[in-house]
């Protein structure tokens, strides 16, 4: 079955990234900003991780945004919903400081453009644990914009997360193609290569490889953007 759509991960794939460095800057700056509004920094970071874990195991019964804020309401009470705007302000104003942990590769947009020139659909399959305002920022750092993709998953618009295969099945459904007609490109073995369980083909981008479980990756087509472009041309 021929490939009709290509799904791209963002962090560590289209956007080169020192993941640990990114998290340190992201959480450090967020905790510092929110401390001005009475949030204990350590508790806030811990609770964000709790909300993130709730999104990771979400079963599609509600959007990830709802799942995350349900956790926060359970911890802080209903008044915390008034502070959603504070987080949005952080992403618009201070999140850019985390760009220091990211690189830039012009071949990222070049590859997205190649896929479109071949008549395939393109989706940004970044783990939907961030709001759109934060995802737009990271796209911008990679030299891309929302309009480059038919679908961009964020916590507002989907009720699944990686590594749930249902996440990939849902994207294929929204693109109007079968999972077998999709190629998933990503750098994280555990989160991106799991797309094979949904029936998709995969390509492991190795420039910022993440393989926390030390899995054998020999069976996956893999390489940098040059190898990916050649692989796509042969589909």
Describe what you observe in this structure.
This protein is of the alpha/beta class and 235 residues long. Helices cover 43% and strands 9% of the residues. The protein is built from 9 helices and 6 strands, in the order E-H-H-H-H-H-E-H-E-H-E-H-E-E-H. It has helices at residues 19-35, 41-56, 64-76, 84-93, 106-117, 132-141, 165-175, 189-192, 225-233; strands at residues 5-8, 121-124, 151-152, 182-186, 201-205, 222-223.
Short summary:
With 235 residues, the chain is an alpha/beta fold. Helices cover 43% and strands 9% of the residues.
Write the layout of secondary structure elements.
Layout lengths: L4 E4 L10 H17 L5 H16 L7 H13 L7 H10 L12 H12 L3 E4 L7 H10 L9 E2 L12 H11 L6 E5 L2 H4 L8 E5 L16 E2 L1 H9 L2
Parallel strand pairs: 1-2, 1-4, 2-3, 4-5, 5-6
Helix pairs in contact: 1-2, 2-3, 5-9
Attribute tags:
single chain; 235 residues; alpha/beta; Rossmann fold; six-stranded parallel beta sheet
Residue share in β-strands: 5-15%
Q: Give the low-pLDDT segments.
A: none
Please trace the helix and strand order, writing H or E for each element.
Answer: EHHHHHEHEHEHEEH
* Structure summary, number of beta strands: 6
Give the CATH level 1 class of the largest domain: Alpha Beta
Compute the gyration radius: what is it? Answer: 18 Å
The percent range for helix content is: 40-55%
In total, how many domains does the architecture comprise? Answer: 2
- Stated plainly, the CATH topology of the largest domain is called Rossmann fold
Distance between the termini: 10 Å
Spell out the CATH superfamily of the largest domain: HAD superfamily/HAD-like
């Amino acid at each position: 079955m021929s490939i009709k759509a290509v799904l791209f991960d963002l962090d560590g794939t289209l956007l080169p990234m020192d993941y640990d460095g990114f998290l340190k800057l992201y959480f450090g700056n967020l905790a510092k900003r929110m401390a001005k509004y009475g949030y204990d920094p350590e508790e806030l970071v811990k609770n964000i991780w709790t909300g993130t874990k709730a999104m990771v195991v979400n079963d599609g019964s509600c959007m990830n945004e709802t799942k995350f804020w349900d956790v926060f309401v359970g911890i802080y009470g209903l008044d915390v919903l008034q502070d959603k705007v504070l987080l949005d302000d952080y992403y618009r104003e201070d999140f850019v400081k985390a760009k220091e942990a990211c690189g830039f590769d012009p071949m990222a947009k070049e590859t997205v453009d190649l896929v479109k020139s071949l008549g395939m659909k393109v989706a940004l399959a970044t783990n939907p644990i961030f709001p759109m305002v934060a995802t737009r920022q990271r796209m911008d750092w990679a030299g891309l914009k929302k309009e480059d993709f038919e679908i961009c998953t964020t916590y507002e618009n989907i009720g699944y997360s990686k590594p749930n295969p249902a996440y990939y099945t849902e994207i294929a459904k929204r693109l109007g193609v079968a999972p077998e007609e999709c190629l998933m490109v990503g750098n994280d073995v555990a989160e991106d290569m799991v797309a094979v369980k949904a029936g998709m083909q995969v390509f492991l981008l190795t420039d910022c490889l993440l393989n926390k479980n030390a899995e054998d990756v020999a069976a996956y087509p893999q390489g940098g953007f040059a190898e990916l472009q050649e692989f796509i041309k042969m589909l």
